[in-house]
Amino acid sequence: MKPLSLAALGLAVALLAPAAGAFGQAATETPAAPMPVTDPQEFADMAASSNMFEIQSSELALETSENEEVIAFAEQMVADHTAAGENMMAAAQEDGVTPADAMNEQHQAQYDELAAADAAAFDQAYIQAQVTAHEEAIALFEGFSTEGEESALRDFATETLPTLQMHLEHIQAMSGM
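-> C-alpha cells emitted (177 positions)
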C-alpha cells in the first residue's frame, strides 16, 4: 500500500471509530419501548394508581408549597384528575372492570419520597414527579388507546390523552423555574 493510502486509511479509521462506538452505545443504552397494555383490567389498575398518585401528590403540594405557580398547577391536577377518575370509574363499570383502589408500590414509593422532601426542595421534587408521572401516563394511555381492546375504557383513554399532554407541557414549562 502506498504511504498516502495508508495514511488516508488510518485517518478514516480514526474518524469513524468514535462514531461506531457511539452507535453501539446508543443501541445498548436505549431501553426498549414497553409493550402497550391491551387488557382493560390491567389498564384500569395502572391508570387508577397513576391518577391517585397525581391527586395525592398534588394535595401534598397544596399543603407544602408556597409557590403560587405550583399551587395553581396542583389545584388544576386535583380538579382534572378527580374528574378523570370519575370518568374512568364509569367506563370501567360499563366494561365490568374494577380499578385498583390504592396506589401500586411504585407510585406509593414515589409519593413517600415526595412527602419526605424538605420544604426547600419540595417544589422541584414535585415538578419532577409530575413530569415523570405524566410521561408514564401518556405512554400508558397512548398504548391502550391504539392497542387496547375495543371498550369504554379505550374510549376514555383516547378522550383523556389530550388533557394529559396539556398537563405535561405545562409542568415541563414550570421545570425551568
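The mean pLDDT is 85.
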